[in-house]
Amino acid sequence: MAAAGLKTRSAALAAMLLSSAATVTAHEHHMDQIEEGKFVSDDPIDSVLWIHILIQILAWGVLFPTGMVLGIIRSRWHVPVQTTGSVLAIIGYFLGHKHKGRQFSPNMHAKFAPTLMLILICQVSMGVYLKLHLEKGINGKIRKYVVKAHGWVGKLMPITIWTQFVFGGITALGFCFGDHTGQCLAHFIMGGAFIAYGVILTIMLLVGQLWLRRTGRSQEFFDSLVIAAWGCVNTFTEHRWGGPWVHNDLQHTSMGIIWWCAGLLGIWLSRKRNGQPKRNLIPGIVIFLTGFGMSAHPQHLELSNKIHTIFGYTLMAAGLCRIIEISFVLRDKNATTADGEDPNSFQYLVPFLLYASGFMFMGATEEQMQLLSDSGVTHVSYVLLLFSIAFLLFLFVNMLLHVYAVHAWGKDSRFDAETPRANGLPNGMPNGHARTDRRVRDAEEFELEGLMSEDDDPESPAANKERR
Questions:
Q1: Is residue 384 within 8 Å of 356, Cβ to Cβ?
Q2: What spans are recorded as compositionally biased (Acidic residues) (predicted)?
């Protein structure tokens, strides 16, 4: 009771602090040091702004996603982690209004911050309400809706957090304003899509196979559906119809056309004649062809040409690895095991290469390439840095999925070298009988609970006496 009360008071304190933060009016943005034609001043980023950046990365980028997973598995650490993240987010919010040094023009990062804080206020408020366990009268009727809303908002927050991080990065450098806005949108949306696809494949690889089986669809059905939809959008948005064809318009549009054509084929091939799900290679081929197109994408700077070439090769490698995985590693099966608990080490390559290619495309805008070229940074150093970031994100996603899987499966998967191997079967029992899955045993015990008398209970004293 005391622990529950402490959690409730902590959550209420976080909600109160968030409410006070929401009432703070936006500070005056000084722009007297910004030169004409630019969108940031040449001043360095001061220590206050660096602290703001680091605190927000810790709060929004680490604690909140971790707290989301802890909430899904109903961990007692959910409230403390989310409360700590909320307090740090408030501190970082105020520091963002108190910095000196570099000045910024009005930007999306500053405009989106109040919306993000409002989402956090709603999420914390719903969490406090649920912690109070008000279940009588009208509260009993609305509680189930609050539970659903709390869950959905929590799962959508990583997307809004990612968006705000992107806004923060381009704002800090003064990018993506004026004529550069269009190509920035293309790079960040497409690069973010590759990373999101990698995250989804990681989820499906490690914890999503049972869900996929319940849908009655193959992974390629969903992949092809998204590819077809995205291709339709790209076909009609990459060129301003009625105007002249300029620069890479034709290549972008043709890439959109091949996406929706291949996507439709992938949807058709994702089922057998009897209606059962079937694997196919179409999404892998589309990824490979997209990489081929991007590797030969003409650019104005030599550095940009090299970065786009390596990005294309990385994407081609992802598509080729996907084809090898389905054809030779899995042999058209969904996973190496029934529940997908033990994926083949080769299967980790595809999502990681998508992470890396996504970061490379996000980091290859015209302004970024010009800045690196002027600074004398080589493409090798830049690519290694982007791969390092991809490794870190891939590690973090794997850690979160591990936390979820260990609780959801309720099974200790550690290998015990001392376990006897009866009849030569690892982790086996005599006569070749496999060890009973703990989930199955728990389900059976739950179903039999209350139906067994004391004499029937194998652990009861009477039963033990009878056995003796």
A1: no
A2: 444-459
d(CA 404, CA 77): 13
What pLDDT does residue 335 have?
86
CA-nearest of 49, 50, 125, 111 to 82 is 125
CA distances to 6, 154, 382 from 65, in Å: 22, 9, 28
The residue that leads in pLDDT, 282 or 407, is: 282
Give the tens place of pLDDT for each residue, 21-43. 444 444 455 676 787 778 888 88
Task: For the chain, give the secondary structure using H, E and C.
Answer: CHHHHHHHHHHHHHHHHHHHHHCCCCCCCCCCCCCCCCCECCCCECHHHHHHHHHHHHHHHHHHHHHHHHHHCCCCCHHHHHHHHHHHHHHHHHHCCCCCECCECCCHHHHHHHHHHHHHHHHHHHHHHHHCCCCCCHHHHHHHHHHHHHHHHHHHHHHHHHHHHHHHHHHHHCCCCHHHHHHHHHHHHHHHHHHHHHHHHHHHHHCCHHHHHHHCCCHHHHHHHHHHHHHHHHHHHCCCCCCCCCCCHHHHHHHHHHHHHHHHHHHHCCECCCCCECCCCHHHHHHHHHHHHHHCCCCCCHHHHHHHHHHHHHHHHHHHHHHHHHHHHCCCCCCCCCCCCCCCHHHHHHHHHHHHHHHHHHCCCHHHHHHHHHHCCCHHHHHHHHHHHHHHHHHHHHHHHHHHHHHHHCCCCCCCCCCCCHHHCCCECHHHCECCCHHHHHHHHHHHCCCCCCCCCCCCHHHHHHHC
pLDDT in tens, 87-135: 999 999 999 888 888 888 889 999 999 999 999 999 999 999 988 888 8
Give the C-alpha separation, 237 to 34, whole Å. 34
Report the Cα 367 to chain-centroid distance in Å: 27
422: Cα within 13 Å, side-chain hemisphere: 9
At residue 428 the predicted structure's pLDDT band, cuts being 50, 70 and 90, is: very low
Residue with token string 């910024």 = 104
Angle at alpha carbon of residue 346, lines to 341 and 347, rounded to 5°? 50
Phi, psi of 378 (to 5 degrees): -80, 160
- What is the average per-residue pLDDT within 80-91? 95
| CB of 311 closer than 8 Å to CB of 361 | yes
Distance CA 330, CA 324 (A): 9
Residue 271 β-bridge partners: 277
d(CA 45, CA 64) in angstroms, rounded, equals: 26
